[in-house]
Amino acid sequence: MRLEGKVVIITGAASGIGRASARKFCEEGAIVIACDLNEELLNSLAEETKDLPGEVIPKRLSVTDREAIKALVAEIKDKYGRIDGLVNNAGITRDALIQKMSEEDWDAVINVNLKGVFNMTQFVVPVMIGQGYGSIVNTSSVVGVYGNIGQTNYAATKGGVIAMTKTWAKEFTRRGAKIRVNAVAPGFIKTPMTEKVPEKVIKMMEEKIPLKRMGEAEEIANVYLFLISDESSYITGQVIGVDGGLVL
Ligand code: NAD
To answer: Which of this chain's residues are annotated to bind NADP(+) (predicted)?
Structure first.
């Protein structure tokens, strides 16, 4: 198994890409601390994965709640003595052209997609530094590199995630620590986040994508798995596009 016994936190684990990842990590023997706001979906995930080799531990947690994150990290450290991996996957959209974007929608997206990644990492990384190793995966987007009409807030966060990834890849390897930090930039993926996209837009997008289809959540989970596992031991500070060639 590729993650046997590894303790890994995944945020946004109840749905879409996070859920596919929690399941996959569990198949590969990991102890997955599955964090999300949606307790019901987290519980169904734990139920669905109970016969797999690893374990899914559901935790209701907002990545915006610094006190709760601090308490969770202390609890994991007490119980397992280490945190091998962190996948900062939770994300939301609140789309509008800038003229119509409310300050509330700007703040909401920044708080979850950007500050949430900062919050989780700030509390988890001291544990990784203490143990001398770890792997962090941050979820960006093709939108963070190329922009997208109607997504000023979302694009700003996803671009920010790339900047934090590169900064941390340098910062977390000081004094011999072997903490790798990489980002994944998904393209257009079939999840609840994209389920309301009109059929016409989907057709248009699929025409533009060289592989001529939307991606599956599992295809992003495969890359998270590779980056959290030791198979990617010489990769850090990278942004891996998983987009069917969309941004070529
Ligand atoms: P999704 O909506 O299916 O899942 C996101 C999950 O994050 C949900 O379960 C939600 O409850 C959770 N979440 C939201 N706010 C949270 C908070 N404050 N604390 C903890 N959890 C919270 O979406 P998805 O498509 O699986 O998205 C996963 C990640 O991939 C996101 O960061 C998203 O921006 C990114 N992404 C998705 C696509 C796509 O096409 N679906 C493309 C590029 C990037």
So the answer is: 89, 154-158, 189
Has 154 been annotated as catalytic?
Answer: yes
If one counts the domains in the chain, the total is 1
pLDDT, tens digit, 9 for 90 and up, residues 80-102: 999 999 999 999 999 999 999 99
The residue range of the domain holding 38 is 7-242
Number of H helices, E strands in the chain: 9, 9
Q: How far is the CA of 237 from the centre of ligand 1 (A)?
A: 22
Of 80, 133, 146, 154, the catalytic one is 154
For the cut 90, the answer to whether the pLDDT of residue 248 exceeds it is: no
As a whole number of angstroms, the distance between CA 92 and CA 118 comes to 16
DSSP class per residue in 77-146: HHHHS---EEEE-------B-GGG--HHHHHHHIIIIIHHHHHHHHHHHHHHHHHTEEEEEEE--HHHHH
Does ligand 1 lie within 6 Å of residue 36's CB atom? Answer: yes
Q: Which ligand 1 atom lies nearest to the CA of residue 90?
A: 7
- Supply the pTM of this predicted model: 0.99
Q: Does 183 appear as a known binding residue? A: no
State if residue 162 touches ligand 1 by the CB under 6 angstroms criterion: no
**What single DSSP character describes residue 50?**
T
Which secondary-structure segment (H or E) carries 224? helix 217-228
At residue 231, does pLDDT exceed 90? yes
Q: For the domain that residue 137 is a member of, what is the CATH number?
A: 3.40.50.720
Residue 72 has pLDDT above 90, yes or no: yes
